[in-house]
Amino acid sequence: MRTWHRIDVEGLEHVAAHDGESGPARLLFSAHQNGLTDPVLACVTLPQQLHYFTRADVFTNPISRYFILRLNMMPVFRPIDRTPDMVERNRTTFEAAHQRLDAGAACGIFPEASQLDERRTRRFKHGSARFILSALGRPAVKARGLEVIPMAFDFERYEGYRSKARIRIAQPLDLSGLPEGSEDAGPNRMLLSEQMRDAMVDLSVELVKGDHYDAHLALCRYAEGRTGIRPDSDWLAERGQALVNAGEDSLIGFRDLIASGISHPRRGDGFAAIGRLHAHGPTRLTPLAFRLPAWAIFRLTAGWWPRLLEPVMAKRIKQVGFRTTGSIPANMMAILVTWLTISALVTAWTADPILGLLTLPFLRICQAVAMPFEDAWIDRLEERRARRFTEDSWIKEWAKPLD
To answer: Is 75 in a helix, a strand, or coil?
Structure first.
């Protein structure tokens, strides 16, 4: 995951590990943008083991099922899966999840019930609230407590190699507003669903839907490049509303920019590069020059794999949000096989198996040392391509209020 994405995590203090014997159970909920990458990213990044509800169709492949079950994921059957005994199977899953909460586990759930490769939160389904209300009524959960925690995933570019992936975690919801002794009733589910969605919107990057989404995304990427952090929510909302209010007029300059050759914000990082150029000029490579030998080794031995896999997955996988679901495991296995092959060749060439084995940590250390230079190099190349667009009138008109 860390080879493919630049990963930022905020709010880990809200999910700090605790004594599972006495600490509260936890349910982390989030919007769902990027296929199977979302839960795996959380599972390998957060300090506490997560038990994720996951769409049942990803369990159909025996190899995938073997690994997914060992990431503690639990199948949820949807009407689209057309499973004859869907209700009974889901009841079994939810009972297993309740037992894990009884024991102090942390579960993860996507209340939207499906993924969407856009940076905005949709209406929550009420099944998540139903599960929470049922859990709150269990004696073991009552005794230890249950923390319902918002968690936002934010991918700058879903399938992009070395694009930034962020996890932001907020403090647990205040459930005291629920009626005393809340039960699984319609009004209570709606009340809790709305509370959960409001918390998610506050935590997430929210872009407008419809024809103006891409233009709004371009401004979001520009702001990310200029500030290096998540764009200010108020500024982003104001810009989105202004784009919508201006109607077709606000899209003319944006479309002209795309036609002129800047990378589309869904597929490239040109707008972020313009933001960096406006903020501090080209990314400097000189301070990272000491990393150059390790970077050269990384690029020669394994660094070409992501550049090969990204366009291959773009052709093979139609849904953008699922491309890294294939790219990241393929990249992991390809690099591993490449390093093992190099290790075997070193062993055969030197007749020294110890030296062959030492090749593996050497290559891993080179990769770790190389990544900051790799990121700076990628940014510098994108800035070079985007430089001729820095004075474009559309950027000046729509991004200038950022200051």
So the answer is: strand
Phi, psi of 351 (to 5 degrees): 60, 30
Per residue in 101-158, pLDDT (tens digit) is: 999 999 999 998 788 889 999 989 888 999 999 999 899 998 999 999 999 999 999 8
pTM of the model: 0.91
Domains of the chain: 6-203 (3.40.1130.10), 209-403 (no CATH)
Q: Torsions phi, psi of 310, nearest 5?
A: -60, -50
User: Quick check: 151 and 30 in contact, CB under 8 A?
Assistant: yes
| Cα 240 to Cα 51: distance, rounded to the nearest angstrom | 36
Q: How far is CA 152 from CA 33, 68, 196, in A?
A: 10, 22, 12
Select from 246, 255, 172 the least CA-distant residue to 218: 255
Which pLDDT score is estimated for 21? Answer: 67
Determine the Cα angle at 299 with ends 293 and 304, to 5°: 175
